């Protein structure tokens, strides 16, 4: 009993101290308490916030509260916002997105079945209860606009927030939440008809947790802890719906909702929260970009946003209180690196660069602590500094018995295959034992030098300063070879020694690297281990792609991949020669092809006889037995089989794209190259997954189209100014004449006629743009000259602004069966190219000529300008993706690639480019000429 009293006294004494430690913050909701905010409620009720040292006041919405201003002005540290906050960001509001609770917005339009409304087209001449605020209802209005319904077609009503109005004939349509109002309508005896923007391609986030940039900068750990606890609360709420509903009914039911209504809301919201994901709170940058594109298209936002700087990169570390206190007191960590070990790390211009630098940037952000690099001249000096406690850690180091005396090692975050580099005249090395007494250079202090000396004592390992020193000595004949990682060798070969040295062998050892931490700092070791383990596969792959595959990204096309494929093919052919004519063992051959990152399939008479490990990994097969014996076309998707079969007949095929099929049936885009060894009936097929590149290309093309739409909107706004001014002047003039009793019938009718003509012009302009923006859903017959004239109206303001002369020479009745808006998009791309050339060259006379003529089966469209033409070396590549003659800040190289795809793939035509001289106004001009040939029917 005495012990219990003692414990009680201790608890009572210390509880106020613990209570004082909790930091008081507030979260502003965007509506009243309901299940919509259950995760935050449960984070508070279950003590998740308290565990993170936070006392959170969850505030209901009140009239007049603006979520973004609430956080920017720090009236509330956190708030729940709609995606329309992107518009605020575009206007300068500095906020961060922490998590998106609902992956798909619950905002829908609701009707009752008795209204007879079945489709969006039925909205015309109906009444809609909504805020009418384009910002708030952008997804709803975009959905309607996409089906040809705009606000002029419907009667907007102020919302009454009463679902009964649908049944009492006070309205026809209601902006509603799918998680609330449909349930209420059913309860009232109605039959809900739901129109969801997601079903029409407008899939928006909702309930985005935000904070201000200023608050995040001042309180990074608190933001991480708050976000972690909030998402933990959401996981609990959706896993324990019954309990959560009971708590809301008991303590948070300010709207007097029924239990069934809350349960219905919970079920519907859970679907939205986990839509296409199994993780709560996901924020996808690409989705946010698409949402912002819609706002720009609607004219609600202007300018660009750096989306990387508004999305909070959240990965919880679950640090202990002791570890958190350690970081708080530590302030900074000193670090030694290898000063010359690219692409992994280097100290250049007083800056840490390379792969490890990218990792430590993430570590620094996650831990809110600085990693200070101590400059050294060599890796050996870095080791010495670390042993003498000048540095707390070594950024990238392998664990060896000798180093364990000085350091503890984290989980490895990098695994590096080892290879040997020699001069070109050295035969490929089948057995490392043949290198007895051969001088092999390894940078002094490197871990694999110790490993190699222990495992292969007969090797003559020579210390070199760094990779440059080692390769230089191999090239000069001072060393037989240099032993290093395949990544560092490939990185160096990009600029040096490519034609002088080669990779002659791959050895079995793999060097694993993590962070080496001073022996006495166990807390730092634990913190870094948790940080490394918190990294997701995407983050690791992005870092690897950026640094290990750096040249692939720098090229304007596929040249690096082509180079890799060619080099690999040459190496394989050489090995085959050695294997079959010198009857060597094929063991090293397999080791070499397994070291390549691209998939390799060796076939005989199109039947697979061997593959490398990368092919198994990429295609998802467990063993070579699963692939050997199959026809090579079995690994190709049906839509690409004919094309691949065609290339299989070509002895040396140029690199081409194909859709490849994995073992599980999934598909991906690949870049493929083939080489047939004459007289052996053996073919080497190399392939590499380019799905990510294709997705990026698709996104850029979409962005290019959206940018064009945005510019078209700007053009139309410009075109409207003069007619609107004329309408205003006409109407004002009539008023003034009437006031002075001088308005004649002739003047009245003349002014009215002018106003009507201008109104018709404005209506036609917006109809043309609406049809263009809506896009093509099916092929149909259209008049080519009429559509070309529509295109000229769309770009009319640019033509006038830049004083461009455009001549359209066309047969009157050319009828084409195809996609008219896609053709207009092609014209726009070609027009912008010409306009950009005129501006770049500061051309005085600017002329574009469009000639359209038809014969029995085809129509020919010639689009030429007097911009001086295209460089001859560029003409062959002008339709390739990412190829551009403009500065990288002015062009993506996708405009003409998009045009090519639309003409060739969508409209089954052809397009070509050349330079021509042609007469205009008694002068001879030089320029580019694009010739499009389209079938009249396809």
Distance between the termini: 94 Å
The structural class is alpha/beta
Strand content: 15-25%
Low-pLDDT sequence parts = 1-20, 549-560, 581-585, 886-894
Helix proportion range: 40-55%
Strand tally, please?
A: 34
| CATH class wording of the largest domain | Alpha Beta
Shape: globular
CATH T-level topology of the largest domain = D-Maltodextrin-Binding Protein, domain 2
Provide structural commentary.
This protein is α/β, with parallel strands linked by helices. It folds into six domains: 17-104 and 205-309, Periplasmic binding protein-like II (D-Maltodextrin-Binding Protein, domain 2); 107-200, Periplasmic binding protein-like II (D-Maltodextrin-Binding Protein, domain 2, 3-Layer(aba) Sandwich); 321-407, D-Maltodextrin-Binding Protein, domain 2 (3-Layer(aba) Sandwich); 559-689, 2-Layer Sandwich (Beta-Lactamase), CATH 3.30.450; 690-764, Orthogonal Bundle (Helix Hairpins), CATH 1.10.287; 775-935, Heat Shock Protein 90 (2-Layer Sandwich). It is globular and about 110 Å long. Residues 1-20, 549-560, 581-585 and 886-894 have low confidence and may be disordered.
């Amino acid at each position: 009993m005495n012990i219990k009293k003692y414990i009680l006294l201790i608890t009572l004494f210390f509880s106020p101290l613990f209570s004082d430690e909790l930091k008081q913050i507030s979260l502003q909701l965007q509506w009243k308490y309901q299940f919509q905010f259950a995760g935050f409620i449960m984070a508070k009720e279950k003590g998740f916030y308290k565990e993170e040292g936070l006392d959170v006041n969850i505030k209901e919405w009140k009239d007049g509260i603006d979520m973004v201003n609430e956080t920017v002005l720090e009236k509330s540290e956190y708030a729940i916002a709609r995606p329309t906050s992107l518009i605020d960001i575009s206007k300068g509001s500095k906020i961060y997105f922490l998590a998106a609770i609902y992956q798909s917005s619950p905002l829908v339009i609701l009707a009752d079945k008795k209204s007879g409304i079945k489709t969006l087209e039925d909205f015309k001449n109906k009444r809609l209860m909504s805020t009418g605020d384009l910002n708030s209802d952008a997804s709803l209005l975009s959905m309607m606009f996409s089906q040809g319904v705009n606000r002029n077609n419907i009667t907007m009503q102020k919302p009454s927030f009463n679902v009964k109005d649908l049944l009492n004939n006070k309205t026809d349509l209601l902006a509603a939440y799918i998680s609330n109002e449909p349930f209420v309508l059913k309860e009232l005896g109605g039959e809900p008809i739901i129109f969801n923007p997601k079903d029409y391609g407008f899939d928006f986030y909702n309930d985005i947790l935000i904070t201000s940039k200023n608050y995040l900068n001042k309180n990074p750990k608190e933001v991480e802890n708050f976000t972690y606890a909030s998402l933990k609360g959401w996981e609990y709420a959706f896993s324990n719906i019954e309990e959560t509903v009971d708590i809301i009914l008991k303590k948070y039911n300010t709207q007097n909702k029924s239990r069934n209504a809350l349960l219905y809301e919970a079920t519907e919201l859970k679907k939205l929260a986990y839509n296409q994901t199994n993780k709560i709170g996901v924020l996808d940058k690409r989705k946010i970009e698409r949402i912002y594109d819609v706002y720009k298209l609607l004219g609600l936002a202007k300018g660009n946003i750096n989306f990387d700087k508004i999305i909070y990169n959240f990965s919880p570390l679950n640090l202990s209180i002791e570890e958190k206190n350690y970081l708080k007191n530590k302030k900074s960590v000193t670090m030694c690196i290898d000063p010359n070990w690219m692409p992994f790390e280097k100290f250049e211009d007083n800056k840490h660069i390379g792969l490890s630098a990218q990792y430590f940037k993430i570590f620094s952000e996650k831990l809110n602590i600085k990693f200070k690099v101590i400059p050294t001249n060599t890796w050996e000096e870095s080791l010495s500094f670390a042993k003498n406690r000048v540095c707390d850690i070594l950024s990238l180091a392998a664990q060896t018995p000798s180093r364990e005396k000085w350091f503890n090692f984290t989980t490895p975050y990098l695994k590096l295959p080892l290879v040997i580099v020699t001069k070109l005249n050295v035969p490929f090395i089948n057995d490392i034992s043949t290198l007895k007494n051969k001088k092999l250079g390894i940078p002094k202090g490197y871990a694999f030098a110790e490993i190699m000396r222990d495992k292969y004592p007969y090797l003559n390992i020579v210390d070199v300063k760094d990779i440059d020193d080692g390769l230089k000595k191999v090239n000069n004949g001072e060393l037989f070879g240099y032993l290093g990682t395949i990544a560092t060798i490939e990185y160096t070969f990009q600029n040096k020694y490519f034609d002088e040295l080669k990779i002659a062998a791959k050895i079995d050892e793999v060097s694993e690297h993590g962070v080496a931490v001073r022996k006495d700092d166990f807390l730092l070791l634990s913190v870094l281990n948790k940080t490394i383990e918190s990294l997701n596969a995407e983050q690791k792959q992005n870092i690897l792609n950026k640094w290990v595959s750096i040249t692939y990204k720098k090229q304007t096309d596929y040249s690096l991949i082509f180079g890799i494929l060619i080099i690999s093919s040459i190496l394989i052919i050489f090995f085959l020669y050695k294997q079959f004519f010198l009857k060597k063992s094929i063991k090293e051959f397999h080791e070499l092809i397994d070291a390549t990152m691209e998939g390799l399939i060796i076939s005989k008479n199109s039947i697979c006889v061997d593959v490398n490990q990368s092919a198994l990994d990429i295609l998802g097969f467990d063993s070579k037995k699963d692939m050997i014996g199959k026809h090579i076309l079995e690994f190709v998707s049906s839509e690409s089989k004919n094309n691949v079969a065609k290339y299989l007949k070509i002895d040396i095929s140029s690199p081409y794209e194909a859709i490849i099929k994995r073992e599980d049936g999934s598909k991906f885009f690949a870049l493929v190259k083939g080489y047939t060894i004459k007289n052996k009936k053996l073919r080497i097929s190399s392939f590499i997954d380019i799905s990510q590149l294709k997705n990026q290309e698709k996104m850029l093309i979409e962005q290019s189209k959206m940018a064009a739409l945005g510019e078209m909107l700007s053009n139309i706004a410009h075109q409207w100014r003069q007619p609107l001014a004329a309408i205003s002047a006409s109407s004002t003039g009539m008023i003034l004449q009437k006031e002075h009793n001088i308005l004649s019938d002739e003047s009245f009718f003349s002014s009215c006629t002018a106003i009507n003509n201008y109104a018709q012009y404005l209506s036609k302009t917006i109809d043309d743009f609406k049809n263009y923006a809506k896009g093509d859903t099916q092929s149909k017959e259209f008049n080519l000259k009429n559509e070309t004239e529509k295109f000229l109206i769309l770009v009319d303001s640019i033509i006038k602004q830049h004083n461009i002369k455009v001549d359209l020479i066309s047969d009157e009745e050319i009828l084409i069966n195809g996609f008219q808006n896609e053709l207009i998009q092609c014209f726009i791309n070609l027009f912008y190219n010409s306009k950009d050339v005129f501006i770049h060259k500061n051309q005085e006379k600017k002329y574009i000529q469009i000639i359209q003529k038809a014969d029995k089966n085809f129509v020919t469209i010639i689009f030429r300008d007097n911009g001086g033409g295209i460089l001859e070396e560029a003409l062959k590549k002008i339709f390739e993706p990412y190829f551009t003659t403009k500065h990288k800040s002015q062009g993506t190289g996708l405009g003409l690639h998009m045009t090519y795809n639309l003409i060739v793939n969508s409209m089954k035509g052809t397009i070509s480019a050349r330079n021509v001289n042609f007469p205009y106004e008694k002068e001879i001009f030089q320029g580019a000429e694009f010739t499009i040939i389209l079938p009249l029917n396809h």
